[in-house]
Amino acid sequence: MLNDHYHQIWQTVQLIPKGQVACYGQIADLSGLPGRARLVGKALGRVPKEGWQGQSVPWFRVINSQGKISFPPSSEYFVKQKQHLQDEQVVVLGSRVKLKDFQWQPDLSELLFSLKF
C-alpha cells in the first residue's frame, strides 16, 4: 500500500513542468492523498537513483507551502535543489521562490489523462 502511494506521488511529480514548482501539500492533494504532505517528502527521499519507470523524478521542483526549500541552507541537498531550480530559470532568493510567479497550476483535464491511479 505504501509503495503504491509512493508511485502515485512520483507519477504526479513527474508532471511538474520545467521551470515551475509545486508544494508538498499540493502534490499530496493531486496524488489523491489529501493531508499527506509529509508522505510526499518521504516518497521523494526514496526515489530510486535510476528513476521510476525509466524516467527521472524531478524532486527538486517540490518546495514547502511558504515557497521555501526545506533543506537546511548549509546542506548539500539545499545547494543541489537551488542549483537545479536556477538551471530551469526559477528565481530563488535566499531559500525562497515566489509561488505566485512559479507555482504549477495544472489543468485538471491534463491530470485526468496523465495520471494512471
UniProtKB/TrEMBL annotation:
Domain of life: Bacteria
GO terms under biological process: DNA repair; methylation
Gene3D superfamilies tied to this protein: Winged helix-like DNA-binding domain superfamily/Winged helix DNA-binding domain
Gene Ontology MF annotations: methyltransferase activity
Residue span(s) of domain Methylated-DNA-[protein]-cysteine S-methyltransferase DNA binding: 6-90
Keyword check for Transferase: yes
Keywords, alphabetical: DNA damage, Methyltransferase, Transferase
SUPFAM superfamilies: Methylated DNA-protein cysteine methyltransferase, C-terminal domain
Coiled-coil boundaries: none
Name used for this protein in its record: Methylated-DNA-(Protein)-cysteine S-methyltransferase DNA binding protein
UniProt organism field: Colwellia psychrerythraea
Source organism phylogeny: Bacteria, Pseudomonadati, Pseudomonadota, Gammaproteobacteria, Alteromonadales
